[in-house]
Amino acid sequence: MFILFNTTISGLYFTFSNTIMPVLKQEEDARIGIRIMNQINNVIQNSLFFLLFFGSPLLAVAMVLMNINSTLFGLGSLLHIIGSFLETIVKMFPGTID
Fold first, then answer.
1. Under a CB-based contact definition with an 8 Å cutoff, are residues 41 and 96 in contact?
2. Which among 24, 29, 72, 98 is most buried, taking Cβ atoms within 10 Å?
């Protein structure tokens, strides 16, 4: 389950950074890009996204607790929580873009 959740969120991040952001960067009028980003933020906040976004780090913590002897797995889970979950909360979803 963790692999499925993590892979799906990773695919979403990849698609966003590889496709959506370059298209928005090409827009000459920044107001259009801001409006589109606000619309994306409104649409993406749904039950499926929240299940994947919050479920993935919760599963990482659960798996670390079940595999206490696995240092490598613990490090990978910690990197996922910091590098994916916390990074997104702190930098990508601070509220609407002004």
1. yes
2. 24
Do residues 22 and 76 lie in contact, with contact meaning Cβ atoms separated by under 8 Å?
Answer: no
Name residue 70's amino acid: S
- Residue 61 pLDDT more than 60? yes
> For the whole model, what pTM was predicted?
0.69
Q: What is the DSSP letter of 94?
A: S
67-86: buried (b, 16+ CB within 10 Å) or exposed (e) per residue?
eeeeeeebeebeebbeebbe
Residue 47 pLDDT exceeds 90: yes
The first and second tokens of residue 8, run together, are 């799906």
* Helix spans in 1-98 (H): 2-15, 21-26, 30-44, 47-66, 71-80, 87
